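Students often ask why inverse folding is considered easier than folding. One informal answer: many sequences map to the same fold, so there is more than one right answer. In these notes we will look at a single instance of the problem. The structure comes first.
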């Protein structure tokens, strides 16, 4: 079955007063994300070996095969964007107790976590993503990935929360100011309930 654009959990206008306007979501969700899905479906249609695989399976099997780079780019972007929409909330920014305690244990403080996440987001040269993950050692970490890169391919840990730092994610709302977009994400948009639920 062909991959489809997942619906947002909120209206396209729901984040407008929190720093992500309707136009951004129309373009980013409706156009950019859809383009990756359409391209992925086309690639799968042409390659019998890829058919019947889950999205996560496609990301993993294409990650280390240079002949499948276009599959990886589009599957990775579909996975990452689907995770990004879940990482946003109209009630974003409030960190629930269990995650807060874990952040304080592993980073020292919420402020230190935010600084670490901001560093990952702002030092990702060019397009990519910054992540909060649960590392294999059981500790929270921030990390970054370029282009369609994703922790589910590297196996470095379990993704909990992600920010898209491709320019298309912030240019309408923040122009070239990625640091401001990241700070706004952490304080007003980040769905920490989702991140906490991903702790398992
Ligand atoms: Mn994007």
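Output (designed amino acids):
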């Amino acid at each position: 079955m062909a991959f489809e654009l997942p619906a947002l959990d909120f209206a396209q206008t729901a984040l407008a007063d929190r720093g992500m306007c309707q136009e951004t979501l129309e373009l980013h969700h409706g156009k950019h994300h859809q383009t990756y899905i359409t391209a992925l479906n086309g690639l799968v249609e042409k390659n019998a070996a890829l058919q019947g695989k889950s999205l996560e399976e496609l990301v993993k099997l294409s990650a280390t095969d240079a002949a499948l780079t276009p599959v990886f780019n589009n599957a990775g972007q579909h996975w990452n964007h689907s995770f990004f929409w879940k990482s946003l909330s109209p009630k974003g920014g409030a960190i629930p107790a269990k995650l807060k305690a874990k952040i304080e244990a592993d980073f020292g403080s919420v402020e230190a976590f935010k600084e670490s996440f901001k560093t990952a987001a702002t030092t990702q040269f060019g397009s990519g993503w910054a992540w909060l993950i649960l590392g294999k050692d059981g500790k929270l970490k921030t990390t970054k990935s370029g282009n369609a890169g994703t922790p589910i391919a590297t196996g470095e840990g379990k993704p909990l929360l992600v920010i898209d730092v491709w320019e298309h994610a912030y240019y309408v709302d923040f122009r070239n100011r990625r640091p401001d977009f990241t700070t706004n994400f952490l304080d007003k948009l980040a769905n920490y309930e989702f991140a906490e639920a991903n702790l398992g």
